[in-house]
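Q: How would the structure tokens look for this protein?
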Amino acid sequence: MTDDTMTPATGFPVHRARGPFNAAFFSAMGPYLERSLRQHKRRVFAELPSTVVELGPGVGANLPYLRPGATLVAIEPNRPMHRRLRAAAERHGVHLDLRDRRAERTGLPGAGVDTVISSLVLCTVDDPVAVLAEVRRILRPGGTFRFVEHVAAPAGTATRVVQRVLRRPWAWTFEGCSCERDLAGLLRAAGFARVDLRPYRLHTPFVPFNTQIAGIAHAAGGSGG
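A: Here is the predicted structure in token form.
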């Protein structure tokens, strides 16, 4: 017997302690994290359309970037996040279409989405290559994937050493989060027509989290292609 339960709609394992812990942690730390990330989010989440798909919205950190009356299609398999996400959407005047699904298999129709967003999510998914393929599948021609993610530090740096040392306890605590993924490389290899990204560094006590990228990937077939 384990401490994991299975989300019935998806088969996604949610640890009985970690799921509620992460929901509480990101609710409590949300304002602090937002101050650190705000300038980057404002750039890549500017002028979002009236309907947005978000991978792993958690407790709703990105709701302020949606216009009041917009619709958020939320792909969120962590059920302990759902109550807080619903409450946050109501506070911000955003219509919430909550899907208890994994990012690898959203269940959305192909080529029907203008914009997909994510923040601090691709580090946690089981198969980031499959997730990026799913994003490309659901984006309409010329659609955009807008992201703010933390990534592996350059090899040989002190931050990379810390990431390597802490990788197991970090992943266990934060629902499988890997602090050693080359997400920039994966994005560039994912088949988008163009990927514009900017690396940057935060200065927080959460050292494995401090190396980040933010940008926009453009699906083929529109002005971005």
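The chain has one domain: 4-218.

Residues 48 and 66 are 6 Å apart (CA to CA).

Upvote if useful.
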